[in-house]
Design brief:
4-stranded antiparallel sheet; Rossmann fold; single chain; alpha/beta; 9 helices; 29% strand; 32% helix
Length: 266
């Protein structure tokens, strides 16, 4: 299953947010969407899921125009994890069962219950199945939200800052579980992240956004200090530590922000 966005434009309150943006998601790969605050990352995810309707451009899923599909059809194809979530007064099992809503006609079937049980096991949530979501830690609650999206049995996953406000251990666990789900089920996924080092460690491709456009479309191995300077306005060095590439920022540079830049390969 592939998703392709072509020439997306979105304006909010008269301010352009997306300016002719295009990208594609491929099954079995996790694409990271990176950039400074206000670059349009979250807006892009919402346009890919038709939560927002772009003023121009098209989103295709297997050559089908997303704007011509109903909400239930889209929910069967795309699972979406928003940046902030409310803690529902539900058990973990029931919260994940909500992910089956696009598939349920009258009531949950044995297949629906089996899917939920499988996803809870996959996410390591079985021991918490009867616990109220409101009683969970931040990391546990985030896994529940991802589990609900996986219970939709989507072909594509869109996640907006899934590691936001999590401690280091839970950041790693969430990214590892996401990677296992994508690889194991052949999903396509897009993840908005602020943490460049997590992106280098877990993602297959990086889309670096700047002023509502794709400034660079690269692999993690191709990220260099010049791209970081152009996108973030930060002087940095990249190093390898025990087999992991890491970004070490030196300083914010107003001088680097002032230099003219040209988009890289997209």
């Amino acid at each position: 299953m592939t998703l392709e966005a072509r020439d997306l434009h979105f304006t909010y309150n008269g301010q352009p947010v997306l300016r002719g943006l295009g990208l594609s998601l491929i099954h079995g790969e996790i694409t990271g969407i990176l950039g400074i605050n206000g670059a349009g990352k979250s807006t892009l995810l919402r346009c890919l899921n038709r939560i927002l309707r772009p003023q121009k451009g098209v989103v295709l899923v297997e050559d089908r125009d997303l704007s011509k599909l109903g909400g239930e059809q889209i929910a069967r194809l795309i699972g979406y994890v928003a940046q902030s979530q409310e803690r529902e007064p539900l058990s973990v099992f029931d919260a994940v069962l909500l992910g089956r809503k696009p598939h349920i006609k009258w009531q949950a079937t044995s297949h629906d219950l089996d899917v939920v049980t499988r996803v809870l096991r996959q996410m390591g949530l079985e021991p918490l199945a009867l616990r109220p979501v409101a009683s969970l830690s931040g990391g546990e609650a985030q896994k529940v939200v991802i589990a609900r999206a996986l219970a939709q049995e989507p072909h594509l996953l869109l996640l907006d800052e899934p590691t936001s406000n999590l401690d280091l251990r839970n950041q790693l666990e969430v990214m590892e579980l996401l990677m296992e789900a994508v690889r194991g089920q052949g999903l396509g996924a897009a993840v908005c992240l602020h943490d460049i080092n997590l992106a280098l460690r877990y993602l297959d491709r990086l889309v670096l956004m700047k002023q509502g456009r794709v400034h660079a479309l690269i692999t993690p191995a191709e990220l260099d200090a010049e791209i970081i300077r152009q996108v973030y306005g930060v002087e940095a060095v990249l190093a390898e530590i025990e087999g992991y590439r890491v970004v070490i920022p030196r300083s914010a540079s107003s001088r680097s922000q002032a230099r003219p830049t040209t988009p890289l390969r997209t």
